[in-house]
UniProtKB/TrEMBL annotation:
PANTHER family: SOLUTE CARRIER FAMILY 45 MEMBER 3 ISOFORM X1, SUGAR TRANSPORTER. It comes from Sungkyunkwania multivorans. InterPro entries: MFS, MFS_trans_sf. It is found in: Membrane. It comes from the Bacteria. It is a multi-pass membrane protein. The chain crosses the membrane at residues 12-36, 48-68, 80-97, 103-121, 141-162, 182-200, 242-260, 304-323, 335-354, 360-381, 393-414, 426-446. Keywords: Membrane, Transmembrane, Transmembrane helix, Transport. This is MFS transporter.
Length: 456
């Protein structure tokens, strides 16, 4: 079916819910490690505590993709019911996670939060492919990336913003910072409102033959597991090649989310989280020194979060340029993605060599170009290579190539890799950079013309 070409604002409305989703992911990516450290986790334990995020994605996204392909609600359509369920659960989890009183509680909330965000996120990818003609796919995913960039930048700066507005961070051992608590509460509100905006402003195409759709749904005897096995077997070769690119890309970004805060507060800002065991709290001078070191570390963490927000701002600017270009012209998705990933790799590696913290703006700006491309080009290439009737399930299965590298990283891959270079945590950023460069070069494997550039 030849689909009607949509206007910019129609595409904006259908993608706006991603603002809230990215608020959730940016707060999680920028500040969960800080929450873990506030609650007493060592930096080497942090990647393993993060394992909830990729594991829930591995389980939830294929299931939601499969179910949404087989769903049709008279009022909410195919994908929007899952937006709504995920939004409600995610908002509750976002609000409560920084109020955790113990490390196990924070890790548990991370499981709930990430599962809930994934319930909303997976159908958004499929919605773009559902609604847009193939000629607008690159444009649609780029607009989505533009909104993601806005969300990343604002959410990453929230703790810094609220601290500037007068919220005081008292460095109390075993307690999460006040600025983080307020930021997560704001994120919960934005998540719910932005998803509701998309639900109320966007319609969906019903199945072309509703009777046949309902009959197939009723008569189909295959189970979810057998369907998944069948779909994995029918995975297009382009999807497998994109999977290799995704593997190295997401290994790099998981490394950043889990270890950038300890790496940069220690190496760049010279303000690591103080260990209470290193101070004699019975001596007033030692107690004062501990509190001063804690305050300095909290301030450094706010600044790291703010600098990390630059990659959202950069991805937004990159996406805006691509939006203006792809609204009228075609692009070579393969070479855009390759160049972007290599630039991001240079950004990560540069963190080791910058002379002062201000240079992190440049590092994260380059990383933002890679991030903007990761959120658009692989999905545009994939959507041109799979059966439209199985768009949801293939988008869900594609998530395997995102979560598997993160699971490997969380189970010790990051710690093993960066310690081959040296014991300083900043070496993890070098590993992330090398991984992105490898991902960029893997684009040479993509050869299908329709995936590389839309063909009439």
């Amino acid at each position: 079916m030849k689909k009607r070409l949509l206007s910019f604002w129609e595409i904006w409305n259908m993608s706006f819910g991603f603002l809230g989703i990215q608020f959730g992911f940016a707060l999680q990516g920028g500040f969960m490690s800080r929450i873990f450290q506030d609650l007493g986790a060592s930096k080497d334990d942090i990647p393993l505590l993060w394992i909830a995020a990729p594991l829930t994605g591995l389980i939830v996204q294929p299931i939601i993709g499969y179910l949404s392909d087989r769903t049709w609600h008279p009022k909410l359509g195919r994908r929007r019911p899952y937006f709504l369920i995920g939004a409600i659960l995610s908002s509750l989890a976002l609000f409560f996670v920084p109020h955790s009183s113990a490390l196990w509680m924070a890790a548990g909330f991370l499981w709930i939060m990430d599962a809930s965000i994934n319930i909303s996120m997976e159908p958004f990818r499929a919605l773009v492919a559902d609604k847009l003609d193939d000629s607008q796919r690159s444009y649609g995913f780029v607009v989505q990336t533009l909104i993601i960039g806005i969300g990343t930048w604002v959410a990453s700066n929230l703790p810094w913003m609220v601290s500037k507005l007068g919220v005081v961070d008292n460095p109390v051992p075993g307690e999460v910072s006040n600025s983080v608590k307020v930021a997560f509460a704001i994120g919960a509100f934005v998540f719910l409102i932005s998803i509701l905006y998309t639900i109320f402003t966007t319609s969906e195409y019903p199945p072309e033959d509703m009777e046949a759709f309902l009959k197939e749904k009723k008569e189909k005897k295959n189970t979810f597991v057998s369907d998944m096995i069948e779909n994995v077997g029918k995975m297009p070769i382009t999807m497998k090649k994109l999977g290799l690119i995704q593997f190295f890309s997401w290994f790099a970004f998981f490394t950043m989310w889990s270890l950038a805060n300890p790496a940069l507060t220690e190496f760049t800002f010279k303000a690591p989280v103080p260990l209470e065991s290193a101070y004699n709290m019975n001596i007033e001078a030692q107690k004062v020194a501990f509190e001063a070191a804690g305050a300095s570390s909290q301030e450094a963490s706010n600044k790291v979060g703010s600098y990390m927000g630059v990659y959202g701002l950069s991805s937004m600017a990159f996406a805006l340029l691509l939006t203006l270009y792809t609204s009228k012209r075609r692009i070579n998705r393969k070479y855009v993605h390759m160049t972007s990933l290599i630039l991001g790799g240079v950004g990560f590696i540069s963190m080791y060599f910058i002379p002062s913290p201000e240079w992190l703006i440049l590092s994260f700006s380059l990383i933002g170009i890679a991030w903007g491309s990761i959120l658009s080009m692989p999905y545009a290439m994939l959507s041109s290579s799979v059966d439209p009737k199985r768009m949801g399930v293939f988008m869900g299965l594609f998530n395997m190539f995102i979560v598997l590298p993160q699971i490997i990283a969380a189970l010790g891959g990051i710690n093993l890799a960066y310690k081959l270079i040296g014991n300083e945590t900043i070496n993890a950023m070098i590993v992330a950079g090398i991984s992105l460069v490898i991902a960029g070069l893997c684009n040479f494997l993509i050869t299908e013309k329709k995936a590389i550039m839309y063909q009439e």
